[in-house]
Structure formats: structure tokens, C-alpha cells
Amino acid sequence: MSLEKTFPVNRKMQVFIFNHHISCAFKLWTYFVACILFQPFCMKEKFKVMESKINRPLMYLAGSLIWLVIISVAVVIFFIFREISGSGFMNNMEYRALHFFILIFAEACLVLCCLFLIYLMVNFKKKYFRRIIVDEKGVSVYNIRNEMIHQTLYADLHHSNDVYLPDISHRIHSQPSFRITLRIFKKDKTGQIKEESIDLDNNSFSIKNKFELYRHFLNGIQTFRPELKIGQRTAEQYNLESHLTENKKISE
Question: Whole-prediction pTM value?
Fold first, then answer.
């Protein structure tokens, strides 16, 4: 009787253990699949968003100098007007006609110059302001109304069609002003691979973290497009070797 009583108990225990093993195996398999499927999203969430920073002291200094020029031109306009009106129109036309017309011409030029500078200062920010953001998608450029005017995605980058050029490299320009750009390759509308440039230099608004923006974009290429080759000189220029371990941690 004791054996018959214990057999059902052992049978239930075996079924319980079997079900427990199946449940654990299913949970491990689900976790493994989730890690594979959602790893890219986790990488994107961990990739830091970097935004351009305006060099405000330099911008305010340049703005102050321009307003000083405007005030100086306005003062000159005022004294020329006094000179013209003080002697009388007919008197100037009769005795100093050439001098009078020179003053009139100078007055008109200075007024136009002053109006142009005032218009430029009032509309400067609306027309020339650019905000640059580097994130998990790529690099995006926005105007003051927060409208995207240009975007370069990591997904759009291609391998170089020149055997002597790496997929990503930098170039130094001296004309019309000194600046650094990144050379990339993308497909155009016809499907052909063309060389393009990423230029984060804003001549109107001085950006003080251009170097960090370029380096962060290159870090994004290492993270999301590791199959693309970054030139050795570019990697050294932007100190990418020290960030390689960090990118590996992000991908993990």
C-alpha cells in the first residue's frame, strides 16, 4: 500500500519539475530573442544627443562693433546734413556747386549704408541662425523657426567609389576662410555614388563646439555603421581611438 501511495506523489513531482524546466527555458529563449531584436533601439537610446553652442561673447562683441559703426555713420550723416542746410540750397548751388553735389552724394551713400546695416542687424538672426544636432540618426541642421533645412543620415552613407579615398575623411579648406569639412559618399537621385561634404562651419554665427560635433558624428558612424572605414588621419585628428571602447560599451 505504501508504494502505491507514493507513486502518484512522485509522478506529480516529475510533472512539476518538467513544467518548471520548460517554463525556465521559454523565459530564457524569450529574453535572448528580445535582446537581439531590441539591441539597436537600446543603442540609439544610449547614444547621446549633442547640440551646437553659439560663441555668445564673440557674437555680442561683433554685434556691438556693428552698432558702433551704425552710430558713427549716423553722426557723420547728421553733420553733413547740417553743413548742407546751414549755407542754404541756393547759396550752395551758386557758389559751391561741385562741393554741394559731393556732399549730397556722400549723404545718400551713407544713408543707404546705415539703412543696410540696420536691416542686417534686425534680420540677422532670422536669416543666418543655424542649430546643428547630432544624434542616433545623423546630423541635422535647423533654422531659427526650428525647420529642418538639411540632414545627413548614417543610413544614407555609402562606401567610397575611389580606391584611394576612405569612406569617411576630413578636408582642410583655406579659401574663402579656414574651415574643416568631412568628406562622405552618398547616392544621388540617379543611384550613382557621389562625393559630398558635411560643413558645420557657420561663418555668421560662431559655433564653439564644432570639433566636438564632428567627433560625435564620427562616433555615431563607428557605432551605427561600423562597416564604413574612417581615414587614419581623420581618426587621429578627432582622437577616435580613445572613444572606441566607449562605443563598444554602447553597442553592448
Answer: 0.66
